[in-house]
Design goal:
Elements: H1 2-19, H2 23-42, H3 51-60, E1 64-72, E2 75-82, E3 85-92, H4 100-112, E4 117-122, H5 128-137, E5 139-143, H6 147-154, H7 160-171
Parallel strand pairs: 3-4, 4-5
Antiparallel strand pairs: 1-2, 2-3
């Protein structure tokens, strides 16, 4: 037992003697690591380009989640409400532009959920055919990087052109 303790003590002394020149470097690395952890915690609560980040923009404008229809890594679907109006929100994180099939699905969901408005958010944009169909169906297409400015634009009410598109859509039902 004594020999084992002596061997352990000798090994520890040798390790300290060998590693002592590197203690300042190790201390700096630990300090950098701790600073990175602290700075990471100070960032926004939700990662940019996430479902939560999109919802944060809506929450700041007074929207409330009525129902979570789907949440996943590649997108999400919600019904939101603000000032008594229901909005169907569909988020897609696809790596390609969204096509007209998705616009049609959003329009159908808007009708099925009895929503006055429908917004489709995409990271990669929309095809030309999708944009044309969205105008006819009254679906708003927003790129993720434009969500906040679009919501600020709507904060004081819906612009007249958008009211006309929504009214036309509602009359045809």
């Amino acid at each position: 037992m004594e020999r084992a303790l002596k061997l352990a003590g000798d090994t520890l002394r040798e390790f300290v003697r060998f590693a002592s020149p590197y203690w300042p470097v190790l201390a700096v690395l630990i300090a950098v690591y701790l600073a990175a952890i602290i700075l990471r915690r100070r960032k926004a609560p939700s990662a940019p380009g996430s479902n939560a980040a999109v919802l944060d923009y809506f929450f700041r404008q007074g929207y409330e989640v009525e129902k979570v229809l789907f949440q996943g890594r590649m997108g999400a679907e919600y019904t939101l409400s603000r000032l008594g109006a229901k909005t169907y929100l569909h988020i897609k994180w696809w790596r390609k532009p969204i096509d007209e099939r998705s616009v049609m699905a959003v329009s159908e969901a808007m009708s099925r959920m009895n929503c006055e408005f429908a917004i489709l958010v995409s990271k990669e944009g929309f095809t030309r055919r999708a944009r044309r169909l969205a105008i006819d169906l009254g679906v708003w297409l927003w790129r993720f990087n434009r969500v906040e400015p679009e919501l600020e634009r709507l904060a004081d009410g819906i612009p007249e052109g958008m009211k006309t598109a929504a009214a036309t859509k509602n009359r045809s039902q």
